[in-house]
Amino acid sequence: MYRVFSGMRPTGRLHLGHMAGALTNWVRLQDECECYYSIVDWHALMSDYADPGRLRANSREILLDWLGVGLDPQKCAIFVQSHVREHVEMHMAMSLITPLGWLERNPTYKEQILNLQNKDLSTYGFLGYPVLMASDIFVYKANKVPVGEDQSAHVELSREIARRFNHMYGKGKEIFPEPETILSHYPKIPGTDGRKMSKSYGNSLDIADEIPELEKKIRTMATDTARERRTDPGEPDKCPVWDLHKFFNNDGSQKDEIAAGCRSAGIGCVDCKKMLLPHVARHMEPIHARRRRYESNDGELEDILRAGASRARAQAERTMSEVYGALGMPTV
Prior knowledge:
The chain contains 14 helices and five strands. The protein has helices at 16-29, 41-48, 55-69, 86-95, 100-104, 107-115, 124-127, 129-138, 152-169, 211-219, 240-248, 252-264, 269-295, 298-326; strands at 3-8, 34-39, 77-80, 144-146, 180-182. Strands 1-2-3 form a three-stranded parallel beta sheet. The protein is elongated.
């Protein structure tokens, strides 16, 4: 059985892009693999260290979204990163051997520095973000890491760090497996304006949005720009609403009808959205029901995180004991 690790930063409620791009995959994997899923609060602080006031509340929102979508604490370990101190210990060990040049050439680092100019990210912690990500994976000796394409470079760096550690300290044996990326096969879900779905763009369809709110947002969604008039033919693959159909609408005959109607201008964009809404409601109603059940029971949420951290810590302690031995550090 493969061992899987993945995490999300607690920056607020999650949206349908997270659900399609990551969480649907996570739910599937919990039935097939030994899974560790973490709310990575140390990662959030690497960019939001100056304003940590929402960290706890955001962590709760993420947990509710995870449980609503279908993560089952009986099938996987669900925990907060900072509740398992071995993540930080592993980060220290990996920081010792990671060349500075590996981090400076990281394309995500350069992109974030340009895009987040309102924050001071000229810190060691932010530069070392990929080392902590690698450490998150190593502490469970995870073989597989489900991530989005934008994070695949970080997993590749994790593989390089694993090879370096094994070569330097393994004495002929593999201490850490080189983790492999698992990419989602589901289509990306665009925001209401057609751009990448993001809170910062104000275009997100949130998992926690009740059905009336989701329907309201979908009715305002951008469509194929070529369809300026009802009689103009369109192309479904250029329409953000069609991406929602691909995820939510499992009725193949209806999808064929919608695609043909769009291309021939036989149906309008309003019709297309109306045909989508029942499928969204059918998919989201049980998610909202689960979320509401957990939302009213803080004690149960705390128990889930406590049990998940205990399960994660048991594996993390074994791994760190091996790392200390490999580094020749004295034991108590």
